[in-house]
Amino acid sequence: MGRAPAVQPRRVLADLAELARTTGEGDGADRVAWTPGWQRGRDLLRARLAEIGLAAIEDEAGNLWGKLPGRREEMLVLGSHLDSVPGGGPLDGALGVLAGLEVLRALIEANVFPDLTVSVVDWADEEGARFGRSLLGSAAATGRLDIEAVRGLTDADGIGLEAALGKCGVDLDRLPAAPTMELDRTLAYLELHIEQGPVLEQERLPVAAVSGTIGVERFVLGFAGRAAHAGSTPMNVRHDALLAAAATALEIERIALRHDGRATTGSLAVGPGVATVVAGSAELSVDLRNADEDELARMREEVLGVARSQAAARGCELEERDLFAAAPRAFDPELVEAVRSACAEVGGREEPIVSGALHDATEVAALVPTAMVFCPSIGGRSHAPDERTEQRDLRTAIEVFGEVATGIAVGETALPGTALSSGGDRAADSPSRRAQ
Amino acid sequence: MGRAPAVQPRRVLADLAELARTTGEGDGADRVAWTPGWQRGRDLLRARLAEIGLAAIEDEAGNLWGKLPGRREEMLVLGSHLDSVPGGGPLDGALGVLAGLEVLRALIEANVFPDLTVSVVDWADEEGARFGRSLLGSAAATGRLDIEAVRGLTDADGIGLEAALGKCGVDLDRLPAAPTMELDRTLAYLELHIEQGPVLEQERLPVAAVSGTIGVERFVLGFAGRAAHAGSTPMNVRHDALLAAAATALEIERIALRHDGRATTGSLAVGPGVATVVAGSAELSVDLRNADEDELARMREEVLGVARSQAAARGCELEERDLFAAAPRAFDPELVEAVRSACAEVGGREEPIVSGALHDATEVAALVPTAMVFCPSIGGRSHAPDERTEQRDLRTAIEVFGEVATGIAVGETALPGTALSSGGDRAADSPSRRAQ
């Protein structure tokens, strides 16, 4: 009970620096999930939890939890992920985990016995960098992971997901058991993350609430033309798969602009890929995003139509292969409003941002009232060693995040669907929340 | 003395079948230069030369010669290459070498002592499949190879050209000694090759003379944009290197059509090449061909202009890196006419073809009066296991090639710049030919 204590941003910055020192300076973060670098990163979290007298508990999906008991069993969960892409940045994911840790540390140091049990969680394998399936641990924890769809995944060396998880003590077949552990009695989830985009920097704002994540359709368009000699094949008899893909990529950009969405063709694999041979095959990746589900569906339809007609115009065959899809996810309006007003008070953005990137919060929000806090990314850069945020913006964001989190923890900030709570009388809310 | 004997196409077809059996059926020809497969292919040529009592002689560049002495030291050279691309076809190169062998065999079996010395040559490394430098042996033999420009070449495994040649007994520094051996006293060079394009098949013609090879400009356009997150980066702040390259590739096609040339963008390497990341870099290969040197230069200028403006439109940097260039090369008009009339007589093409592909003949023609014979390629396909020519067309082409070659060998067909020769009185012509 008692007043919410202030978090100390400098301790979060020190932990981030320590993490960078131990798991990849120079070439960037070396914390790909299910690798020794990731385990070393988690060792820091384990050590810090031990320093404040808390056990580190791993659930069936490999998510790592630290838990500060409150007067009630119902939880506030603060989380993000320590795993990184190969050669990643120092902030993506780690900031949110270590800021969550700081909230627990501040509560303990202030001798506050919180109203709610407060947990920090390091979700396993948010990035999907090794096996291509992102949000693995958080999806498992919400019971939304299809085990059979991921069982056959292999990394670039042919090592299977099941074997890699096994080496880390995680049994793939036990993943569905993870959700029962914590989320069914969680009343709120908060995540602090860098924006990974240019909006806040361009607006010169230190912090913003996030109102949800936009929907994603990700697939591959495979164009099959006919390989032919560059010198001896007249232009008018060619079936150039690369040009069919190139024309499609340019049209896809126009489709995104028309629908106020985003479209990325980040990969184009050409076969045989030789300067003197007309391309016989071209595989173009397509990543479509839109905050509106219907608009997203329309974008997908138009892209497929354009691909079909560009393929036909060059006598190429077309194949479409789905990679990933996520519906737009709105976070909890009341929790978002609590974050928004806290941001606005310190000179942050007046309006919430819709995140173009997916986060663990996207998965958690399917079960639990959720909100996020964004801080700026210099140059919009992320997933790279030079991923940075101005120190003063980091401090502001950590403070805002800490203020909202500790406020909820001690019962000073109202939880979604309730009036301001001051006591231990909300246990009965939990079942209804599970259906949200 | 003596009438020109007829060659026997069936023996060439049998040798081709034997070569395919020993050096790669199924997955295609396995005769990449400077590899064991190539050496096995050459063993067949060595064995066949031994069967007709001729030595196989390797020159300083690794070119393999068989020589039938005539009344004069001046030579008629018949050649092509046994080396293949990985998984190549049974005919590309091998047809010309084995047809040349058959000419020597026919002369010997008919007991003809030819007017000219007649040589068959298997040029080393025509394809450049392993080290990226095509026409290596023929360029060295004409003294037109820049040793320092190739010394640093490495294969995909990092093995250097110099080491690979050394393993085959070829000393890179001795390559410039190759030309003095044979070409300075060669009066004519003939090469039979498959078309590797669709023209003859579409015209339903069995054979054609080749009047020259078109010019080539080959280079890489490197677009440097900025890698960025597919979800969090708004469309209007992107610097998408792939889209800059895609727009350029489509413009390049239009430039080729405008200039009655050919343009191929066969390779596009994207970095980081991930579906969820806006492309930060894109390297587009450009291969431009035109029979007219000025038009070729204009094509190149226009391509560079388009690339610059497409890069600028997306805020990308542009770098251009030259890979290869060859001027259009016209073959010897009189020799081409001799081949053309022989083709027309058997129902072949009335007009010579300009070859869009380069051949060893391109190099040889810089020093020696040269002509080529083309036979059709089914579907225009080459550099692939299903590279085929109808048997009846192969027979016709081998017969025409043999007729012209034996005609020159025995002095029945006039050599360029001379009246019909019937004696051994043309030795004095040789020096002037060297300057052609």
Description:
The structure is a homodimer of 436-residue chains. By secondary structure, chain A is of the alpha+beta class. Helix content of chain A is 35%, strand content 20%. In chain A, strands 1, 2, 3, 4, 5, 6, 14, 15 and 16 form a 9-stranded mixed beta sheet that branches. In chain A, helix 1 (9-22) crosses helix 3 (94-109) and helix 9 runs antiparallel to helix 10 (293-313). The radius of gyration of chain A is 23 Å and the shape is elongated. Mean pLDDT of chain A is 92; it is low at 419-436. At the A-B interface, strand 7, strand 8, helix 9, strand 9 and strand 10 of A face strand 7, strand 8, helix 9, strand 9 and strand 10 of B.
Largest sheet of chain A: 9 strands, mixed
Q: Helix and strand succession of chain A?
A: HHEEEHEHHHHEHEEEHEEEEHEEHEHEHH
Which pair of chains forms the biggest interface, and how many residues does each contribute? Answer: A-B, 63 and 63 residues
- Stretches with pLDDT under 50, minimum 5 residues of chain A: 419-436
Strand content of chain A: 15-25%
How many β-strand runs of chain A? 16
Q: What fraction, in percent, of the residue positions of chain A are helical?
A: 25-40%
Alpha-beta content class of chain A: alpha+beta
Question: Radius of gyration of chain A in whole Å, from Cα?
Answer: 23 Å
State the distance separating the first and last CA atoms of chain A. 28 Å
**Quaternary form:** homodimer
Mean of residue pLDDT of chain A? 92
- Supply the number of helical segments of chain A: 14
Shape of chain A: elongated
